[in-house]
Amino acid sequence: MDLAVDPRAVESLLAFWADAGVEASYADEPIDRLAEGAAMLRARREPAPPVAVAPIAAPAFGRGPDLDTVVTQAKALAGACNDLPALAAAIAAFDGCPLKTQGARQAVVSRGPVDAPLMIIGEAPGADEDAQGAPFVGKAGQLLDRMLKAAGLLDRAFVTNTVFWRPPGNRTPTPQEQAACAPFLERAIELVQPKMLLLVGGASAKSILSRDEGILSLRGRWFEWTSSDGRTELPALPTLHPAFLLRQPAAKKKAWIDMLMLSERLDRPHRPN
Ligand code: URA
What we know:
Blueprint: H1 7-19, H2 33-45, H3 67-79, H4 84-93, E1 118-122, H5 127-132, H6 139-150, E2 157-161, H7 175-192, E3 196-200, H8 202-209, H9 215-218, E4 223-226, E5 233-239, H10 242-247, H11 252-266
Parallel strand pairs: 1-2, 1-3, 3-5
Antiparallel strand pairs: 4-5
Helix pairs in contact: 3-7
The chain binds uracil.
């Protein structure tokens, strides 16, 4: 009988035998399972022949112009924007960041008051942000908002990211993708004029501060961010990403300490030198 014919026929035949009280089936000849196992163990002990693995290439920077050209274009476009709506439109029209054509639905630029004293810079939009067109609106963003609210900072924060399109599969944006978006981010800082920056997660902190250390070493320490023309300096505080806190709730204490440091400095009376 050809058992590969129809699975329903096989099922019905098995049900027939089961109804008849047949609970096990045997082949005509015995099978030595121990010999099979020994052969498998031998095969496992023998080293497998080396397989040629191609090195994983960093994603190329796209098929268009090189990074320097893209950054020059981005600087010119961003510099021509005199307010945030114009900047958002320029970002949406910008084709220099390869992420734009890697499955993102739309550009995700910012949310929050345009005169906020605090600017929060995350890593990159995720699926919820891509769908809704605003940064930090998914589960991680909701946790961020709860922490900001508890620290009295919720309505005082302008929220954005190092890149404006969702990376495919939520991978970390590459330094090149961040560099392509950086002139727009810098222009946003010039237009909002925050008093300080909160850098959320390692990909943000490393890119904005040009540092190599991990976020666990950077967080909770004040750094000085300097604009590319050297004219603006702002205190910047790296902290843990709320997506990390959702996976590691025990780390929330550290993030809360960072939040309190931030709110204390934000409200500290300014003493002129
Ligand atoms: N994570 C980020 O870093 N940014 C977002 O906007 C959402 C999640």
